[in-house]
Automatic annotation (TrEMBL):
InterPro entries: DIOX_N (IPR026992), IPNS-like_FE2OG_OXY (IPR044861), IPNS-like_sf (IPR027443), Oxoglu/Fe-dep_dioxygenase_dom (IPR005123), Plant_2OG-oxidoreductases (IPR050295)
GO-annotated molecular function: metal ion binding; oxidoreductase activity
Subcellular location: Cytoplasm; Nucleus
GO cellular component: cytoplasm; nucleus
Keyword DNA damage: no
Family named by the database record: Belongs to the iron/ascorbate-dependent oxidoreductase family.
Keywords, alphabetical: Cytoplasm, Iron, Metal-binding, Nucleus, Oxidoreductase
All residue ranges annotated as the Fe2OG dioxygenase domain in the record: 207-306
Protein name stated in the entry: Flavanone 3-dioxygenase 3
Main location group: cytoplasm
Function: Involved in the regulation of shoot development and salicylic acid (SA) homeostasis.
Pfam families documented for this protein: 2OG-FeII_Oxy (PF03171), DIOX_N (PF14226)
Amino acid sequence: MEETSKSHELDDYFTSAMALTESGVPRVPTRYILPPSQRPMLSPSIATDTISLPVIDLSLLHDPLLRPCVIHEIELACKGFGFFQIINHGVPSSVVNDAVDAATRFFDLSADEKMHLVSNNFHDPVRYGTSINHSTDKVYYWRDFIKHYSHPLSKWIDLWPSNPPCYKEKMGKYAEATHVLHKQAIEAISESLGLEKTYLQEEIEEGSQVMAVNCYPVCPEPEMALGMPPHSDFGSLTILLQSGQGLEMMDSNKKWVSVPYIEGALIVLLGDQIEVMSNGIYKSMIHRVTVNKDFKRLSFASLHSLPMQKKISPAPQLVNEDRPAAYGEFSFNDFLDFVSSNDITQQRFIDTLKK
């Protein structure tokens, strides 16, 4: 009886973006329409044509002679953009393709199949939803998602969706591969700051990984809505896989720049924890997601963070008289508490930490 009651309660306010697309709505419902000043400009901006976005061959890190050059490239990318694309990253294309197949099958399930995973609780280890928080968002965002804790895999995988039957195996292999990749990337970024590459080694091994698998369905009026609002990620790094173009970053002139889609590449985005750890030398990347009226887009954001309760603060080696500590400390748990009760479109979490 209690489960039935909960289901009706959810039905009252939960309609996924995918369900709207499948119903054939000719226009975006009012609750998805952004104020005019926040709507995306879908024609290419001038900045897109003039800016050169970094692509780094990660395999060269393994060559002792070339590693210093790659570390320097990463330093320039982190200072200039807060992100870089990586090729030859070591995640097999078969693992990527299998994960995309599993995600596609999951989102193609009937609404009833997915409803038992719906939750508004940001602390839940597995959560299906739409928008950011469908119970509190003033404006909805045109996406559906399934999020699940992913490291250590053995601790969480039993809680993942059992339907489609291939989901756990295929998504599990991708999660493990991105965890290894995260370790390589964080070592290189630590080196680029002049720290030991093992600076965060223990925190990485004990840290958390949240896999956010996003579906951005076809949208009848993409100029009126967004898939995700402007935000930065809370963690150390996000490793992003996208099935097509849709990611935009804010450049140093506060202009939105479309991040090119490179088949087979992954994107490494700096999160708030790296901004704090670097004492502001590197900044977390502000980004948003546009939607499309012609095709559905999938993205996998592998969000890596220090352990739930572990506080991060500026690295002592990067604090001195000329550059005093510019941030207070925080943990992943602090971020979850903030996002549970605040509108991230009105205030970034990291701004609450600045001294």
